[in-house]
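Model: Ready when you are.
Researcher: Fold this.
Model:
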Amino acid sequence: MAKIAPTQNADTSLEDTTGAPLPETYEAALTELEGLVGRMEGGSLSLEESLAAYRRGAALVAFCQQQLEKVEQQVRVLDGETLKPLPTTAADSGEDDL
């Protein structure tokens, strides 16, 4: 299966392979992706519409992965290159139980 990567045009806005602009935020991309999945699972799309939805979804997934990688890199920089697991309980975080 081939990966579909977003491309940049001359005005530097991100687009998917169909030419549709990608959302500006991770949250907007995730919302659109969830809507696409719902429509595809509903079974009411034609073959061509399903293929277009799949292509758009692949571009949205690539965009979301890229955004997550950027955030992870920022966290690594802020945390001195060492990612630490988040505490799962109050005892792990050093908070006193009252």
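Researcher: Now this one.
Model:
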Amino acid sequence: MTDAKSLIRARGLVETADPEFPRPAFRQPGFDGILTAKEMDEKISAWLKHTREAKGISRADAAHLLGLSVTVYGRYERSEGRMTVPRLIHLCEIMGFMPLDLIFDAAPHLWGKTPEEAEERRTLTRLIELLPADTMRDLIRLLKRMTPGEEVAEAVAPGETQRG
């Protein structure tokens, strides 16, 4: 089992204070420093509003499809309310995006060490999402053969076995 100090060093975490949280927490700095929870909420809200508008879905229709009032749904787009993970999944079903699309906008540093690397990884993910199932399986087998063992073991889903 990994202790907290080892994890802090390994992940490059830094102690940070956020007005939203009662105690200091450890975070990984992003490309523009460490965003507060409020700043991340604002990015998520702006992305959600932009995506809904780009898909031509009215706020009233989005609210109706989610089983919410327009007022309650509007809170998500104004960063006045936080959505739960089940609500995020429901939004993905309605608006046709993947959860990673929204998360990438708020925390691209999770995808790479530079903005360019992060964008390339996100682009690769989007391309993989478009592949037919049989091509995707072939690509997975190929990538597993090309990737060093320890990283493959971490990337394999729980319950899945690693094949060489």
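Researcher: Key takeaway?
Model: The chain has nine helices and two strands.
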